[in-house]
Predict the 3D structure of the following.
Amino acid sequence: MNIPKTLKIFNKKGSILTFNSYGASLKSWNFELKDKNRVDIVLGYGDEINYESNPLYLGCIAGRYANRIANGQFLLNGKLVKLTQNDNGNHLHGGQKGFSSKLWDVVEHKTNTLILSLESRDQDENYPGTLKTTVSYTINDLNELKVAFYAFSDMDTIINLTQHSYFNLNGNTGEDILNHKIKINSNQITEIDHQLIPTGKFLDVKGTPLDLRKFTRIGKMINQNFQQMNFAKGYDHNFVLNNNKANNIKKVAELIGDKTKIKMCVKTDLPGLQFYSGNFLDGSYEGKNGFKLIRNSGLCLEPQYFPDSPNNSHFPSTILKKGDVYAHNIIYGLSN
Ligand code: GLA
């Protein structure tokens, strides 16, 4: 098979996006400002080869189960499933070789649309069932990137897919995102323990650094001495969106780059939003323009199901029954 290295889509409003088939990863989103200057608002590797393993999960589709599953274990139909443990004894982002580092097939490639698919065989990373997944990326003329997920399995299984782009709305200039302003429409997070595993409790954001219901400078409270923040070394929390009806796409978050004034609006029909402020980026990889990817170089806004849902029966269910269809949407919209 001929593996296209860079897949490009664009719209009539000056947005140009490129992708890599490894991980169905978004590599760049070149956005045109009012003054016609261009800004690439996502982080990427300086060296393309890193998309093959994608250790930082830059721009990828995370799955089969994005985020963590405690001890990599859960009960499904009364049977214990033991997944690969690739994160301190827990399961993260689909295991050793999750969807983020698999080579996806290009199903369709048009001017403004790219559709990729992946077949994950039964027992891949020990997940039950052969799962067929399709992700469709479309950039419209409102500068909205729509990410649509479809999946189905030949056995009962679990699933949680997300888009894992690291955004920096000021561009790839080596500066951090601490002066970006963020707003998340959520009253609660799922509380985490020191391993970032949900305790099962919901925590009201009111009066804490996690209260982002009004536009807040990210750096304002990121270092506040608050246990939930200390555990994650910044923001790395699942915000409860009270939203899990497919096709009920709601605005859940907004982000503003302080230098460019680019505004991003995140919409989804998924029940949770992981806000990760790039706390584990430690300079070991080079990004674009020769800058090292350091702590807070970018941030992720990942609509998804809650972490460790298979072990928390009071969380929205991530079970995908044989023959059922998993269908969810994420929209990242830019304006200036
Ligand atoms: C996610 C998690 C983080 C971290 C990154 C990948 O967004 O929430 O804890 O694991 O992925 O480094």
Remarks:
- The chain has a mean pLDDT of 96.
- The chain has one domain: 6-335.
- The helical segments are 227-232.
